[in-house]
Amino acid sequence: MATLPVMTESTQTQKNWTADDSAELYGIRNWGCDFFDVSKQGNVDVSVQHTLDDGSQQTTSIAIIDIIKGMQERGLEMPAILRIENLLDARIKSLNEAFNRAIKAYNYQNNYRGVFPIKVNQQCHVVEEITDFGSRYHHGLEAGSKAELIIALSKLQDNESLIICNGYKDAEFIELGLYAKEMGIPCIFVLETQAELPIILERSKALGIEPLLGVRIRSTVTVDGHWNEDSGDRSIFGLSTSALIKIVEQLKHHNMLHCLQLLHCHLGSQIPNIRNIRSGVMEACRFYTGLIEEGAPMGYLDLGGGLAVDYEGASTNSTHSMNYQLDEYCINIVETICESLDPLNIPHPVIVTESGRATVAYSSMLLFNILDVRDYMPTALPAALPKPKQGEHFDQHTHDAMKNLWQVNEDICHTNYQECYNDALYYRDEIREAFRRGQASLSERALGDNIALAILQKVAGFIKHAERVPPELANLPKLLADIYYGNFSVFQSLPDMWAIDQVLPVMPIHRLDEQPTREAVIADLTCDCDGKIDKFTTGNGLASTLPLHTVNQDDEYYLGVFLVGAYQETLGDLHNLFGDTHVVSVHIHDDGHFDFAQEIQGDRISDVLSYVEYDTKIMTEEFRKRAEKAVRNGKITAARRQQMMNAFNASLNGYTYFEKEH
């Protein structure tokens, strides 16, 4: 991982910094998918395409900082999740039209039917927008539980849109799906194990409704990326070949093989390498062919998820990137199916994919403000090493270490900085050990640390110009980076960053016409060493620090974490009882204005307490009794008690995050 050089104020004079420089620095034009860019005014803009009445295309751009101002006017403070409805629509449109272009180019004799996996983002407004806009493309839903099936049955109104039922299904789940099929909804049960089939057969017979069935096979193609355990022989999902044959035999025995119409082959999640996709489709086609040879009518080929999001903007096959574009993905699928089935004169199936991440990731971002900064800059050193104050006596060993440390700071240059680095750590640790033994004072300890820090900062300045950085110094810029304290919880809003080292783009959303002069890592509000962000995507690749601006005490400084629409909104936990943030959904119109389509207040403290089984009425009464006892004992007045009760109740109804006084 690259570490960016520590920037100083003096570098700003080397050239006039522009918004384009910031766009390049943060790589926004690489990962932004034409949705995000930096304006000449130095703001991050979100851009959407509108088709006008005359058929022409118009791009409308809105500064995110303007949306934040609108939120504040409505009483919604940081942190908050911002969703842009138009971006959901744009991704559904892009996916369907890319497949339609590939189908036309290869004279493919069937259709594409996308389904959105509800588990990727179960939020009601997200699912409603997908089903509403997606109806023009017959875009369906995938349900992996009874709760998700209920969502699909209630929110999906288009009877040409598929409902794909994955996961383990009990009798109640199956009954709901059978009723849906009876109503004319194409609801397909995908068999994950042999154990599901007897339940389906029994419920089908009892209700007199024939099911639509699919089978999920276990692909042997091992894909690249973080989730490659989803693929290959050790995948926990899917039927083995022998189990598949047994299911076919059971269906034949019950004269229900005609119900088997779909083959499901989940290629993987966030697949960065297009070659894996092509190989997986080839194998899926062989299974599809085999089922037709067994007598199943088939008709649908479900290739699951896998379409990646380029979080890094690197266009490579690294874990958080992708080495292909959407059109190439669609073409590879269509072309491979044609090449596999045409020589056998097998009719082309309906192509189904379950793209979740690629559908919703772009539409949401986490916005938060910076509350405080801890820098690792030394305070000004005195002109000479201080002498003992009256009544003080330096320990000679400690004083010698201090003198040597002082001399290292005087002698350091570009030819000896590695030696000086080693000496600085040695003498600093000597002084610290003396402090632990009671042989150095607190002021001596502070002076020793400050001199050593001054030396380390000089070393950092030298290594950024070095052709070869010694391995022991490579991590120094990160160790000296500022810590910017953000008003958010990693565990609540960005759980994948903590749990699986997911990389998400992070950058300031304003002041981008100014050069950032500090290098930083970001800490959250939680009392946990894991509550931080220290891996960043930049225009030069991944880095362990992020360039940021100095924070002005009187002005808010806002950062955004982008591409958080997939999984992050529903996987969060209540670490330190920080709850859900405010959520705002915005729709951008072609005339340049935007509507707040939905506002959801974040959790109050009383909400999160109830989640962990506290009764706030009882808690209030317990606090009242304690305060009343203090009145009886003469520690406070009754009037002060009332002030305390008001403060207690106000806190119960307050936001779980840091609230600034206005």
Second CATH tier, the architecture of the domain at 396-476: Up-down Bundle
| Regions with little confidence, pLDDT below 50 for 5+ residues | 1-14
CATH classification, class level of the domain at 396-476: Mainly Alpha
Average pLDDT number? 93
- Which structural class fits the helix and strand makeup? alpha/beta
Number of E-state strands = 23
- At the fold tier of CATH, the topology name of the domain at 396-476 is Methane Monooxygenase Hydroxylase, Chain G, domain 1
User: What is the CA-based Rg, rounded?
Assistant: 30 Å
β-strand percent reads 15-25%
Anisotropy-based shape: globular
First-last Cα distance: 42 Å
Give the helix level as a range of percent: 25-40%
Number of H/I helices = 21
Largest sheet: 10 strands, mixed
Q: Keyphrases for this structure?
A:
662 residues, 8-stranded parallel β-barrel, 38% helix, Methane Monooxygenase Hydroxylase, Chain G, domain 1, globular, alpha/beta
What does this 3D model show about the protein?
44% of the residues are buried. The longest helix is centred in the C-terminal third of the chain and has 22 residues, at 442-463. The strands form 4 sheets. Strands 4, 13, 14, 15, 16, 17, 20, 21, 22 and 23 form a 10-stranded mixed beta sheet that branches. The protein has an 8-stranded parallel beta barrel with strand order 5-6-7-8-9-10-11-12, surrounded by 5 helices. The chain is α/β, with parallel strands linked by helices and 662 residues long. Helix 14 runs antiparallel to helix 15. 38% of the residues lie in helices and 17% in strands. The two termini are 42 Å apart. The chain is built from 21 helices and 23 strands. Residues 1-14 have low confidence and may be disordered. Among the domains are: 396-476, Methane Monooxygenase Hydroxylase, Chain G, domain 1 (Up-down Bundle); 616-652.
